[in-house]
Amino acid sequence: WLAQAADGIAKAHAAGIVHRDLKPGNIMVTSDGFAKVLDFGLAKLTELSDADPDATNAPTVAHDRTSEGMVVGTAAYMSPEQVRGKGVDHRSDIFSFGCILYEAATGRRAFAADSSIETMHKVLNDTPVPVEEINARVPAELRRLIRRCLHKNPEQRLQSMKDLALELREIEAEYDALSASASSGSLSSAASVAVAIPKRSSLLPWIVTGVVVLAAMALAWWSLRRGNPRVESFQNMRMTTLTSSGDVADATLSPDGRYLAYISDRAGKRTLTVRQVATGSDVVIVPPRDALLGFPSFSPDGNYLFYTVPRPDRQAYKSLYQVPSLGGQPNEIAFDVDSRASLSPDGRQLVFVRHASTPAPDRLIVLDIGKRQERILAEIAKPVDFLGSPSWSPDGTQIAAVLGDTGPGPQVTIALFDPRDGRRRDWVNLARTFPTSVTWVHRGTALAVSGQFLATSIYRHIVLYPYPEGRPSRVTNDFNDYGNVSASLSDETLAAVRASKSTFIYLADADGPTVRRLTTATGPENSFTQATPSDTGTILCSSPRNGVLQVWAIDTDGGAPRALTGMDSFAFNPTSAAGVIAFDHLDSTGIQVWLMNAGGGSLRQLTRDARSQVVELSRDGRHVIVESETPGNLELISAADGRVLRHFDGSSGAATFSPDSRFLVVGRPESDAQGIQRNRFEIFPVEGGAATSVVRPPANATDFRWAPDGRSVTYLDRSDPAWNVFRSSLDGSGPTPVTHVTDGRIVKHAWSPDGRRLGILVRTGERVDLWMTDPEGGKPVRVTQISPEVVSSFRWMPDSRRLVVEASTRPSDVVLIREFR
After folding, report:
1. Position with higher pLDDT, 164 vs 187
2. What is the rounded distance in angstroms from the CA atom of residue 585 to the CA atom of residue 593?
3. Mean pLDDT, to the nearest integer, of 611-620?
4. Which residue among the candidates 21, 250, 338, 813 is catalytic per the annotation?
């Protein structure tokens, strides 16, 4: 019946009619079994009584006019834009229909209060109780559809009532086969996954974030050759949302389950807060600050909280702080900490990971908190790295840590270390998995692991590994991204950060303010990311379909996106120049670099190593910089025949071509007099020979680019309050300022191909917009004003007049998971 009603509304929308008052009372079923939608156009208007207990058949709120500023509709089924008195379109009907679907699935109204005013307040500000908490039998597919209808922002809703009708009919046809065990939540794209990256290589941001993110999938995919353990689903699991701010970056549950420490990230500032789980009351421990707070963890008794903060003078290094859980003076207790700290059961010691640049080994460090004394528990030689954070067992006898082999014959393993002498025992081989966090569960009876399990999904999930047998059982099974997982040791409760990301691609005019959206998305499952222009005028990007990433092409003058790669393997990280497209190709044999022509034809494999990824393609299309085998090993490869022309060992993993394609700059780590590492940049001729010059930028420099003149490099200096752009010449002179921003902070910059303009992303408050200035840093002009999405990246089109812009939303909150056994 609801599918029939949706079909009828879709026909009205096709005729330009918006109902504006959809509710159960306006859908009738005839004697011959067909659903009819009544009362189009708000023809009959009567005053709504605040005391009416049943909004299902409530009369409509009446006003003499229906222009913008007038509120019309039935309070419990109004869209947020109706409540605000704004102009509405067909997406308002989709929200109202979502309210009807919610009521049909649960028997309760999505938004209910004692008066219409209070109800409308809930429509604007509250999120309905998750469907599964009321009716656990509702299939996950229907729950997902309801959520997509009930987005507050019309741009984030399902965009077509016809699509809604089609999905309802598919659910109806397959209802008996659908599972209600999948957990609830919005979808998340693979590109939203947050991967822990060693600090030394994270200094060079011209390596696209998506490349690093999707490299994580490569590590997991390599394990395809090892088989896949059976994964079970949980039938009685309960999941509840603990926060509702939508800006949680990290969180951890106290061992007794009473408190949750979470880090919120709003307007570029991070806040550390402790919430009492039972009452929902919050105490701010660290007020909003620019520093990148991270890795919260509790002491076993819950009295102390630990977290990391980058050193102001050495942004690549983090210090570990200890603070009373309900507030007090933080104390620095360790330096150079690259993971979450896990406490011993007696609270006297903690363990963490310290990453090192190639070829130095990663280390597992145990700290005596009272004495402030460190000891090296274990060292892991390259190409093996510690992944994520370690976890000390509740009985104190072992420390679990994840090891990832990124060289030939890669594998990912949960290893158990003796905290007394560091003896290692490899416990579980995680086939097809790239883990991001691991934690012991109640009484040490299992380990909960969050990460990508590519046998079933490209999104991060939570899987339980019972100890000691290690047979995996699935905890989550949806399209959400589940970040750090933590556990209460007093009962069987898990906490995790659940996030969803939807991304849109825009085409912006460098002269502003014209911005045109090129893609639409009803959720992360069909978002397009990693947008990059080709010299043919199309936009290349990545997007998942049926769990497989493909490379797509989008015409700037309109038309549907078209896939350039197939469904037999993962394809991502496209880059294009001179009619050549280079991209990363992931299958059961590993990850290699492939090439194809601008139309998607003539596919050929360029590299043959077990692990190779594109860093950059030269503008003339003749050469490709590839990161090969072990991170930090770079190769310059001929695009014509795949010959390795140059090899660079021990780099920081970053390199880029000069504008004329004749030179490349390679980053290398070096230590200063205090033993603190920083990057130097060596300039090499592409055709061969030794380095012609060396640039040593400030220690807090980031986002390096070749300047248009080819004789200098530009970068953001994070020591500057606004992170302005500075320039250093290859002859060693500089740095000199390029931009002079005083309001906000620059987070990214890029020069136009003709060198006449400089684009900068500026964060001001909660907004991130693209601005334009000239090579002399004249007064910037704002190019974009996109909302509610946040601009995350941009790239210049070849004509130097337009830019490809990515903007996204990524709501994230903490969920509690119970009855997951």
Report:
1. 164
2. 6
3. 90
4. 21
